[in-house]
Input
Amino acid sequence: MSGTHRIKVTVNGKLYEAEVESRRLLVDFLRHELMLYGTHAGCEQGACGACTVQFDGRAIKSCLMLAIQADGHEITTVEGLAKDGVLHDVQEAFRNAHGLQCGFCTPGFLMVAAALGEEKKVLKGDALRKELAGNLCRCTGYANIVTAVETYLEKVGGAAQ
Amino acid sequence: MNDKTMKTGKDKLIGVNMLRKEDERLLQGAGRFVDDCDDPRMVHLAIGRCPYPHARIKSIDVEAARAMPGVFAILTGADIRARTEPISVLRPLPGLLRHSYYAMAQDVARFEGEPVVAVAARDRYVAEDALEQIIIDYEPLPHVVDAERAAAADAPILHPELGTNVVVDNTLDAGDPTPLLEAADVVVEDRFQLGRVLGLPIETRGVVARYDRAAGMLDVVTSNQSPHLTRSQLAQSLRMPESQIRLSAGTIGGSFGNKLGLYPEEIIASLFAIDTGRPVKWIEDRMEHFRATVHGRESTHRIKIGASKDGTLIALDDDYFIDIGAYNGPWGPSVLASVTMPGPYNFSGFRARRRVVVTNKVPMGAYRGYGPPESNFVREVLIDRIARKLGMDPAELRKKNMVRKEQMPFTSKSGAIYDSGDYSRCLDLALDKLGYKEQRQRQAEARKQGRLVGIGMSCYVEHAGYSAASISRHTGRRFGTFESVTIRLDMSGQATVFTGIPNFGQSLETAFTQLAASGLGLSPSQVVVKPGDTLGTPQSVGAFGSRGTLAGAGAISKAAGEIRAKILRLAAHELRVSLESLDINDGIITSHEDKSIQLPVSEIAEMAILGMDLPQGDEPGLEATAYWTQPGPSFGFGAVVAMVEVDPKSGEFKLERFIVAHDCGTMLNPMLVEGQVAGGICQGLGATLMENIIYDPDSGQLVNGSMVDYMVMTAADMPKFELAHLESPSPVTPFGIKGVGESGVIGAAGAVANAVSDALSPYGIEINRIPILPETIWRALRAAEKKAA
Amino acid sequence: MKPGAFEYVKASSVEEVLAALGRFDGDARILAGGQSLMPLMNMRMLRPAGIIDINGIPDLDTIRLEDGRVHVGALTRYRMLETSPLIQEHLPLVAHAVRRVADRQVRNRGTLGGSLCHSDPAAQMPLCAQTLGAEMVIAGPKGRRKVAAIDFFQGAYTTAVDPLEMLVEIVYPAMPGARVTLAQQTRRHGDFPTISVAAAAIVKDGVWTNWRIGMGGLSDRPLPAASLCAFLEGKPLTEALIAEASQILPDNIDPIDDVRATAEYRISLAPVYISRALTALLKGEGR
Output
């Protein structure tokens, strides 16, 4: 029905039940219904990557999914990275490398990078830049973002290699 | 500075790579951007925009939309005309022909994207549904989307009351350069085109407006770089007293000049807030952004430079058109393209004629650099051509003509006053980093193998810090050049810095913390910065033109110095030691007379705030408000060297090296400086390599107005770059710092264009437009081959 | 912008999809990965009455090898193509080309079937299907039918799939051990290419056979380069041969002028990119 649907979705480890309209975008649901404002909408057409979240562990653009599609799935947003007030390694790496300026694109980059880290991928340079090409940043010129992610991946995946 | 307070405590935090205060919250997605402000009673706006480049609005039927469930209110151009004044111009160029720019089109819409109607509804989805139900009868009118065509006698006129589309025609000169050019041994000239581009912050614009009827107070949160100036404009448009409007910026997700001054949507959202009594939110979507937020740069130049046989630059004569789109907005076209035209060189003759033309396109406004990138490109490309004509090394020719260190302060023929610097040393720094001699050899060898390798350079000045002097002479701005802060200590000894300047990624909180902590003798953790709010802050100008940190530094140092002096006075009184013996470090007061003294500032703060046991003549409280005006202009500068290889078959080229050596005076925080330069490089290269807004001349439509179609670089596209720093402290600024926000963007186009032209010199191809697209090069190569055959 | 209202149907079988398509009488869209559909919905350039979500259909994303053919379910995500050992081994061209599709997030979510049905004339997956001569299995009210790639791609954003039908499977001839490459010009990383050349061949004892070459950017659909394949078939690949081969363009070329490039430029790029593709194969720079 074009009306509303009842969904159950786990976000950052917490189960939510909600009533959503068919057309409600996942990004709008996360932001304005769950008040998880860290996921940002930059273009609503899948071009900028600011709305990237992890959907069942995979980085996806939440402006290109309906909230109703999250029914029965697990989502991690940027709010789910830090634990007990301690920054996640990837966040720490961005801070130390000055990998953010205005911070608007940052959550999207963090979610892509964290997914790479979880896969223990140790990527560098051009190969890494290609993995980050789904996210646009207009402030940093990317160099510091790449450095931050390299540092992070080395830290979490180094032992795996 | 001769003010001694400027120097106190400076050694500790000035020049230090302090990690950013902003990051903790931004990294956790807790930035509090405009769209993060929610309220269950909120209504959401969608704005209906003209789909034509130029059209008469014959009728608007909103009845069906008004009847839809969830629709609260609708506004049209007629409401706007009855209830508001047009948007004022903050920075009119001399001689500007004034024309009305209302928040919504009045009878005639003049660009694709101009607001025509607005709906307030339960949510954005419903508001957009309602827009679909509004029937607007448009009569398309003849359009013009090219500035030079718009300046012609037979062009459709956008603003009939003006009788012309040329709204500014003025000349900045040092006399007529024609005789000098006629006498020159070589003269090079060309017509140059700079593409239309956008700053494209990843956060679009947005407004949340609330109206408190009882208090008569309007509270506007808007993604904006100049809250005080914008509030003043909003008050004027709404016919309200300024004091009844609070305007704050929240956290801004990038701005680059695009979020300066008042836009129609702040007016529209405010009216809805007043009408509905509800909080009102408008968030610009990305399709709107391309049609509602200012564009930048687009201009065409016809420029000549003359030189003598020995390579001495003699005179420069430029005649250029700026395409400002349909209206002269609050910020309008760039001023500095003319002022910085001579660049770091000493010319004898100079003239720049500027014509600003209205066309049926999105209004133009400020964008990072805002003049210097344009003039740098056209000048630097011609300088390389002179070098080629004379058979001189382009680096040697530049160095020969640069203003020398010992000539500082130097007044250029355009009236710009350069305060300090060693321009030729900066170029050498970049060339050394490249290994200029070796790379020239490599280039010669490559050329023997038929490979097209080129080296190009460009040198620039960055107007990094406004002063009163430069303003009165060249412009008619309606804003001051000062900056201000209030610093207040609480009883815990924590200092809060209140400033009207907002934080949009330039690391304002970090920079201001370093400055305030240094000035006060506190640790950085004892300083909190509250940016971007008109409430309770002294009048501010805002952050643009690489001025925010610099101008703020002056005000902070002054206010902090006053407070520090009072703390010491009170401490001397309390501790019964001499004032001269006291010092404050990391919030602890010590005395070299009595080493046992370790008094936390909080104790003095408590004493001051409670007003107990004060020395005679001191009032309670521990706070200060200070204004600071820069006594003279300051200019940063830099040199860019690029190396490319062009593929003759496809016209594709690869940027193999890209080096920026720059000087922004004393670096307050080198890590942040590098970040600013890097970001500037990315935007400068973007406009050089791929960014370009295209309007179809036949339909007048914006062809690539979406983030999918407008090409900005990803991490995989961004070439590697190398940086080098030089520090020539400015004599006219606190600590000798100069602004740096625009530095990276200025020299990119010239250096890359020169490298490409150098690579293509066997074919005699000269680049004269940006972006430099592979297809353009391919066309030039085929034309050259045809000519040769 | 936000999508207009629609009725959402979550299908759990192909039959349910077909029934729902019938019920909306063609005014419905199938939602797979949504990476092309959702932007159009968000911009309100598409306003279907119904959205039929196929993400819950089991076994629509399987990859299997059968009688020398690789069967790939329409719901198979790009990521699965990237990581599948079976695709690596038997469809190395697809494994190679899929890495050039858009970006990481899009590849995590977007599907093969979605790409083929969207049929952007410049996209990599339609190009590979055309190059390899894949067959598409289409389910409809009257049962299933197979359509060869050459008949499947009918123009820009136009395929043989009727509004009441659904693409369920793509069947490729396996090419184990092939040398493959994709040469393409893009304005920026992840953008749809201005021009592209996909090529695959089997090399044995210095002789190159089983040539499969296709080109994008020269028409409103990807084109097979049959004459070029015939010219190269069974010969040793040399620089001299490449120079000659690069002049052999597909039949029926009819490129368009758009914001990416003019038709004239695309045509001029064709020999350059054929040459780059073949040179990459020769040097073993592809896979």
In short: The radius of gyration of chain B is 28 Å. DSSP finds 23 helices and 29 strands in chain B.
